[in-house]
Amino acid sequence: MRLGLWSAALAATMMMTTIASAREYEVVVRDDIVFAEHDGTKLLGDLYLPKGLDKAPVLIAVHGGGWQIGDRKFYANWGAYLAKNGYAVFAIEYRLMKPGVKTWPGAVYDAKAAVQYVRAQASELGVDPARIGLIGDSAGAHLGALVALAGEEPLFSTEYRGDPHAAVSAKVKTVIGFYGVYDMIAQWEHDQISRPRDNISEKFLGASPMVSRKVFFDASPMSYATVDKNATRFLLIHGTNDDIVDPATQSERFQRLTHAGPAPVDIAISAGARHTDPTASYFVRAVVVSLALSYLSVISATVHRSMSRHSTPG
Fold it and tell me: CATH code at 32?
């Protein structure tokens, strides 16, 4: 389903007024939770929890920053906003690019470990282990999509067997991706023009496609968008003026490839928005709360049917 942002926001507002459980919660924040330790690095997360809501659905939030900058505090506002609306958020950090750090595929293992930790510790955290999703922007959307689609592949499941929760499932019900990278070759080609002195995909993977096309294939969520692996529902969000991640070769192409699968893939487009603009949009927040997060709730079928009547055909 392809959503014009205005029509999606209108539908979101209509749905939010009709859902009986749409109430505001007090937000409880737990900072600096260690969810894993990989190669001597303690990985931390912050939990935003709707107070008084038992077994809240939860999103693991993975920040962007070209795999080289950023931290979990990027999701402080989103965490508080979503928790107020009844959805817990566990905002995480992962290992970033710097000398001596095994970033690839280590960053994927870090994000996967967060899902496993939340599921294993759901009772203690106050969340529902059966209703877990991922939300990420840019590089974070890339990592989240890989966990959802390829988390059980040997490349992402043979290391860190000593993790306390290594045997716990990392499957998720939904992925919300803001201006994500889903085809690493396409991103490399785009970087050649837009940022030739800082080709982030080449730096992250440690080689150019001329040296190893396989590593770019393995690192692309699009490579795993097959019928047997795309049961996870996706909401893809991007702006039309993004000059860092090209929407046509990333979100839009990914949506076309996954559209034939059993789970719906929705795409919301923010006209005129640049790379990071959609994460600050109140209209996008309405779309996320009423559409994508409904995938985590028992009323998902009702909400999805109502949203479909108010969206533009794609």
Answer: 3.40.50.1820
Q: Are 139 and 152 in contact (CB under 8 A)?
A: no
Phi, then psi, of 275 in degrees rounded to 5:
-60, -50
Q: Residue 241: give the domain boundaries.
A: 22-279
Residue 17 scores a pLDDT above 70:
no
Which residue stretches of the chain are H helix? 5-18, 76-84, 106-120, 122-125, 139-150, 184-194, 200-205, 213-218, 251-258, 282-287, 300-309
Tally of structural domains, the chain: 1
CA atoms within 13 A on the CB side of 239: 18
Collapsed DSSP state (helix, strand, coil) of residue 21 = coil
Determine, yes or no, domain membership for 38.
Answer: yes
Q: Evaluate whether 30 touches 46 at the Cβ level (below 8 Å).
A: yes
- pLDDT at residue 127, as a whole number: 97
Whole-number Å distance between alpha carbons of 221 and 144: 9
Positive/negative CA dihedral, 73, 284, 271, 300: positive
Give the pLDDT band (50/70/90) at residue 23: confident
